[in-house]
Structure formats: structure tokens, C-alpha cells
Amino acid sequence: xxxxxxxxxxxxxxxxxxxxxxxxxxxxxxxxxxxxxxxxxxxxxxxxxxxxxxxxxxxxxxxxxxxxxxxxxxxxxxxxxxxxxxxxxxxxxxxxxxxxxxxxxxxxxxxxxxxxxxxxxxxxxxxxxxxxxxxxxxxxxxxxxxxxxxxxxxxxxxxxxxxxxxxxxxxxxxxxxxxxxxxxxxxxxxxxxxxxxxxxxxxxxxxxxxxxxxxxxxxxxxxxxxxxxxxxxxxxxxxxxxxxxxxxxxxxxxxxxxxxxxxxxxxxxx
Length: 270
Prior knowledge:
Elements: E1 5-8, H1 14-25, E2 29-34, H2 37-49, E3 53-58, H3 64-77, E4 83-86, H4 108-130, E5 134-139, H5 160-181, E6 187-193, H6 201-205, H7 214-226, E7 236-239, E8 242-244, H8 253-267
Parallel strand pairs: 1-2, 1-4, 2-3, 4-5, 5-6, 6-7
Antiparallel strand pairs: 7-8
């Protein structure tokens, strides 16, 4: 990568923040996305105080309008984008939380964890391709559940845990499809489970006991984002630093194509 500019969604806290700080120390210009302006400004100050460079882009990725606003701002400012890390996500929610919907009317975890990265990546794809060799990293989870195409918006028997798991499998399916689409075009696309139950707000909100650190998760993301060993590997799913197998539905081409078409329909992406 001759230009080192990276967009990280969900960069103001948790593992996204650690990855932003590490990349900045390696000389990357960090495009840090978040929802909170105060936390975004604090992250930029922290990176600059450490000798790095960062810009904050605020957006609510639970809405298509927010995704479009982020993509338009980044595309305007940075015609070439060699690194995109789709890290922003929403977890299980507090125990007992009922089904929630986005401002566009979609089940919230499906909207944030799948539709947002689907749309953002499609909108920024010209910028990523212009910067080839480039990389796209999708932060998924080892917690996966098959999609029910007859109830994709989870209107029956809702569970926040299962909604999260479905959305993360959908993100892995997106990864495999996009890697195939971009084969031989100088862009790698990989997904990973960074670490199990990292010590983050998302995990604490779900009343789960942390089992790993954000630094462990950051190690895994950095491996896919910048390691020389991953420069030509694409269309893979990793558990931490190790190649792994996702749930079987992720390898079902018919299921992936069905999900892909739904993604285009719901987001209006081209």
C-alpha cells in the first residue's frame, strides 16, 4: 500500500479505538467513524498527541441516510481509500430487550451489522478500487446462526442474541461474495471473529463476563488489515489469528446470492 489512509467504523471505543491508535502509530491517516462527536474529538486529540494523524467522521449507521452521509464525506475527501474496516456493530442488547427497528423500519441488528456495511462498502468501492492494492476487513463473530429467509426481519420468536448471530453470519456471507466479485482487481476482502467476549461496552451491556482483552482482538484485526502475510489472501474467515470455517450456510452460493439481492433491494445500492 503506497498510500496509508484507513476508514474504521466504530472507532471511538472498544477494539476499533485500539486499532485506530495502532494504525496511527504506524503512520496511517485514520478516518475515525463514530456517533458521538465528543468521543470522536477526544480520539483525534489522543492520536495527534501521540504523533499520529486522524480525522473524525460522525454518522449514525443505523439509517441509510447516515451511511450515505458518511460515504459521501469520505469519498469527497479521499478519492483513494486503501483500507476499510467495517467494525461498527450492535450487540445482543441488555437481557430481556425486545425487538427493535431502525429508522428505515428494519430489524436493528440486521440493519447495523449487515445492511450498513453492505451499503457503505458499495458506496466506497470506487475509492477502494482506485487505491488498489487495498483491503476490506469485516469484523464478524464466532457467534453465528443461519438466516431464515422467510423471516429475515425476525418478526417471530425474536431473540437479541439470535438476531446478532444472524447478522454476523450475513456479514461473513457478504465477505465471501465481495471477495469473489473483486478477485484479480487488487482488493482483498476477509472477515474475522477478533476475540471472544472482549472487555467492551457491548459485552458488559449484555451482562456477560469478559473472556479476552481488546488488545487480543486488535491483534487479529491488524493481521488482516496490514500484515504482509495477508496481502494476497482473500475470501477467508478467521477466528482470531487462525483461519477457520464459518457456519455452513456461508458457503451456500444460492443463499449468498439470495441475501445479496436482498441487500441491493433494501439499500438501493448499485
